[in-house]
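Hey all, quick one. A colleague (J.T.) asked me to put the calcium ion job into the tracker so the inputs and the structure tokens live in one place instead of scattered across chat threads. No bug as far as I know, just bookkeeping. Sequence used:
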Amino acid sequence: MGRANDEAAEALHEYADLYAMTGGDAFRVRSYQKAAKAIAGHPEDIARGDVRQVPGVGEAIAKKVEEFLRRGSFRQLDDLRAEVPEGVRRMTRVASLGPKKAFFLFQQLGIASPEELGEAIRQGRLEGLRGFGAKTEENLLKGIEQLRSSGERVHLGVAMSLAERVMASLPAAERIAYAGSLRRMRDTIGDIDILAVGPESLMDDFKAQPYVAEVIASGGRKTSVRTTQGLQVDLRVVPEASWGAAMQYFTGSKEHNVRLREMCVKRGWKLSEYGLFDGDTVIAARTEEDVYTALGMRWVPPPLREDTGEVEAALRGELPGLVTLADLRGDLHTHTDLTDGVASLEEMVAAAAGRGYAYYAVTDHAPNLFMQRMTLDKALEQREELRRLQAGYPGMRLLHGTELNIAPDGTVDWPAEVLAGFDVCVASVHSHFTQSREEMTRRFVAACENPHVHVIGHPTTRKIGKRAPVDADWEAVFEAAARTGTVMEIDAYPDRADLPADLVRMARHHGVKFSIDSDAHAVGHMENLRYGVGIAQRAWLTTDDVVNTWPLDRLLDFFGR
Ligand code: DGT
Ligand code: CA
Ligand code: CA
Ligand code: ZN
């Protein structure tokens, strides 16, 4: 996927938001959003081809995109940006405040940022305003606090594409890699840490890149910049001879490094970014493996380096054999343009085959997500089409599934006899996010107890920086999942990252099994599985824990429970 696609899609999404905010027609808002998704998911670089070939992109949108490709913006976007202050746009990131309401508050009361909104609520200035009752105000205050505490961190997907762009932009480097929280695959990233071996000119190359908005600090060994997206990137140039020690040090975590340093102190050694030393003698520095081996332990995979037992396990030689991307044999949660995906069934299936899957489930939305206009007839037609396609893919089993909606009372869209016709039923919460903990727990437990529900999709429903996780007694939910053999999903979409690693670990202690799914709405989204594998690794999962690493027979047996 070309970067131009992502940037144009981002601009169209922004335009759709601003357009919706300022009272634009909902139908057109949806068509901008659809076009943005289609462009982001389009396999060819639009900067080289014709954007009109992307499905869902008509003449009017194509013109905007072409102007964007020429000069990084388009006139209508400039106009709306001028009309809506930056702080008002940030207000739309407050959970439960839609774009229309945000603009309404700006026009009616002059409220122009999330901070001002919090202040206005506390001063009672919203009282009596239509659509802003006490419960709404309480939810808004929660959303504002959540936005504040999530600070400037970005999700892993944003940070990873930027890091890959930075590394590709410095061809003079003999060696270059990312370290820090990104290498540990945390779900949010504070800043990007890049290490390189290379000539002195590397720093100047770096500072001259188009993605650099501001140079924060620069010296011979380290340069920090702020990018046009607002993210900080630290580039460190290190000597080849201490590459391994530098990678070890700057990968962190701080807590993991503290534990290693304590071990060194006991032996009278010193561990730094330059190496492991006994006095002036270098014991290890060139590779990370050398450093860990010298300390009497196995090399620790970066996602485990959080001081949550990995140091002890590495010393005993008992680190888990972590699940890897190559272990995944299929995907159990994907969409097509029958509902809100942007690619056709044929395209998605062909892409899955291209990835070498042994099985692939199509799980479009079910009728209770009304916007998607799904019907049983459409689902059954899709099943027929899938059966026809099957003949062309002897090496890959196509599974017909659905993504059901878990209603507030824990029931799902279709009666048992309809559900029984699907190979895979994923069930997810898509509404009523603010139920009490007791209600939400009962809701999930009921979904687990439904014998036709195989997988709970994106269980916490959080969207990083946008929507808080739902409140549930997760111990009770996981206990029910383990008891009923219901799989908990690790939704690999990086703005979801759901379940997060800490809850995966908790669930694993209850004996829960997991599926790592892309939740792809476009061909390009299938790539996101690597982020799901990152979560699984951070939670110490092995192939035995992850059902979509299993052969199909074992998987279907498990579903048949
Ligand atoms: P972030 O950026 O907040 O997502 O998290 P990290 O882990 O990338 O943290 P960062 O960028 O401050 O530092 C990168 C790594 O460098 C960190 O994980 C460990 C190492 N490091 C940085 N400063 C220190 C320090 O003062 N002591 C120790 N032991 N390690 C440090
Ligand atoms: Ca960092
Ligand atoms: Ca840093
Ligand atoms: Zn969903």
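Adding what we noticed when we looked at it: Residues 180-181, 186, 189-191, 193, 249-250, 252-254, 257-258 surround 2'-deoxyguanosine-5'-triphosphate (ligand 1) (CB under 6 Å). The CA atoms of residues 94 and 415 lie 37 Å apart.
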